[in-house]
Amino acid sequence: MKSFIAASALIALASANATPTGPFTIGAWNPTTAWYGTGINANGGGFYIGKSPSSYCPTGITGLNCTLYPGASTVLVTGGTAPNMTVSLDVAVPGGQQVFVAPNGALSYTPPHSTFAPTGSIFDGFDRFISNAGGGPTPLYFESNNFGACPVTGESGVYQVFARAVASSETLGNCTVFEMRTYTADGVVAWEY
Prior knowledge:
The chain is mainly beta.
């Protein structure tokens, strides 16, 4: 009887949190700064609050219809399971674009047609789950930590996203800690970022 109760408790705990599937967008949550899902976008190899996505679709390629890829938002997908979960941009470009944390902690992504990332970059360690008990928005963590939004010098209202688990305290000195939350998306909206 004891083993049945213990097994039932483990099954209930495992089903309390579930990994969602499918494409999603990301937003910053920090009530102190009035960020209630403020959009985070892929731009120039990094992720930013206050910038539009730097999506691109090449013209002049036979059979490629760029009207299918307006690139107005940043859409991502996950692969694997926590604690080894990976995140990629949901793009149409062959080879895709993978998300990683750079050695300085910057949330980054690979260029199109390339797997290049600086030596020491980390590609896994993400965790995205639905708390069935809480019913709240779906968070995304890196190595069980939140993220930091650091002001970009000379760009008012623009913040670069850093993983708090990797970035130094010096880098995070004047940054705002926030929870990254995810929202279901329809799928590929960009050829590449």
